[in-house]
């Protein structure tokens, strides 16, 4: 059963990361859409669906199954896992920032330029690289 749980965990990680990489790109394009325009309203729908239907559920599955595997596999004493959990906590914080930015766009209250979202888009990538290295290499 552990391998099935691990497979579902990895699928959820892929879905979460796909959304975490795509949502800020939508924000970049949304910055250029005039408030109240059809484009802006379309971006709002796309952002809401991505967040509510993919990103949020995927993150929940990642955490639930990840915590189960830590417990079931007895990994809680591993140093590499502590570092990985720290990076996943930071990624979850970035997720929270995305939710706040989503709410600002939904209320037509975004004040940040597209460049901010381009930079923010790189954060999940860097965290993902660190997480994958820790999981595969287990350096400590």
Order of helices and strands: HHHHH
User: How many angstroms does the end-to-end distance come to?
Assistant: 27 Å
Structural class comes to: mainly alpha
Strand content: under 5%
Count every beta strand, where a strand is a DSSP E run of 2 or more residues.
0
Number of domains: 1
Query: Count of helical segments?
Result: 5
Summarize model confidence as the mean pLDDT.
97
Estimate the helix proportion, in percent.
over 70%
- Main beta-sheet strand count, sense and barrel state: none
Low-confidence blocks of residues: none
Shape: elongated
Integer-rounded radius of gyration: 17 Å
What can you tell me about this protein's structure?
By secondary structure, the protein is mainly alpha-helical. The protein has one domain (2-137). Helix content is 84%, strand content 0%. It is built from five helices and no strands. It has helices at residues 2-31, 38-73, 79-106, 114-120, 122-137. It is elongated.
Task: Please give a handful of descriptors for the protein shown.
single chain; 140 residues; mainly alpha; 0% strand
């Amino acid at each position: 059963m552990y391998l099935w749980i691990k497979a579902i965990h990895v699928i959820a990680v892929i879905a979460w990361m796909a959304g975490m990489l795509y949502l800020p790109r939508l924000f970049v394009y949304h910055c250029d859409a005039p408030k109240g325009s059809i484009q802006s309203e379309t971006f709002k729908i796309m952002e809401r669906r991505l967040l509510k239907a993919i990103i949020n559920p995927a993150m929940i599955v990642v955490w639930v199954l990840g915590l189960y595997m830590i417990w079931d596999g007895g990994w809680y004493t591993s140093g590499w896992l502590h570092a990985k959990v720290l990076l996943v906590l930071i990624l979850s914080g970035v997720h929270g920032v995305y939710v706040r930015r989503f709410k600002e766009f939904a209320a037509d209250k975004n004040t940040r330029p597209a460049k901010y979202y381009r930079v923010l888009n790189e954060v999940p990538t860097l965290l993902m690289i660190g997480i994958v290295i820790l999981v595969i290499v287990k350096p400590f």
